[in-house]
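Retro notes, structure queue

What went well: the backlog is down to a handful. What didn't: a couple of records were mislabeled last round, so from now on we paste the full input next to the output in the thread. Example, using Urease accessory protein D from Urochloa decumbens:
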Amino acid sequence: MAEAATGAVRVEKVRGRSALTRCFARYPLKLIAPSKVGPASCDAVWLYALTYGGGIVSGDTISCTVSVGDGCTAAITTQASTKVYKAVGSKCSEQLLEASVGEDALLAVIPDPVTCFSTARYHQKQVFQISANSNLVIVDWFTSGRYECGEKWDFSFYKSVNHIFLGDQPLFIDSVLLENGSNCSIAEQMKEYNVIAMVVLLGPKLKSIQEQMQDEVRKLMSGQLRPPTSGGSLYAMRSQPPQRPQRPPLVASCSPFGRTQGTGMVARVAAVSTELVYGFLRQHLAALEPFLGASPYSTS
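Corresponding output:
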């Protein structure tokens, strides 16, 4: 196995503002901290995580620890999709993120999607340690591959695990596993959908955003999944052969989680294209701009 690439990030209050007090990474991981994102009045640290070579090579193991101190705000994103190159034999590419979020702090993990090439093997694990009043945004999403080139769900193995702990108690545990087997291929299970996404919103600062997303997703899906109506006569309706309902290009759902109502919310999305999910994220995460200084996934 390749030598682990290690990154370490710490955000603390310095003179009353969120500041990056530690930022370390070694090959093939690279961390970029722009000096300014958004207006100067915004108290948020941004970090861009990328890899030399433009992707993750078979057998790479990349690990990173992140600490966001009390009252601080930090956002971790990428400059483009995370490409996972073809596997060499049975080697698996791995990424591990371990993050702690302090009291009244906000951490937003808002990357672009993971794109696994044909035969790729990839395992990702993210573990978050939070406090009672921590605030957390997680976007975890992946595509079918280079589907515009005809490479759809051709990777061999994909696993993504997200754990959130409040103290020593598990608050949210989620795992996604896709593996091509002899019984049913990934492509057969996914039908026409090419993108799968999960969005987690947790904490008191994000309660209104949770409620708004749940309401908007409910309206969106009730409109898309409503059966078609006909203005014709009852006889005409009976004489027509039943039509197979078409699957909407984007489907979404929202579910609350946590010990008390409204502690956290998870949204799940499936779509036929990456552009549709980008649009979904831009719309529903735009309300984070006052906290982060910029709207996630904005094209401007």
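Agreed that this is the format going forward. Reviewer comment attached to the example: The chain is about 15% helix and 40% strand.
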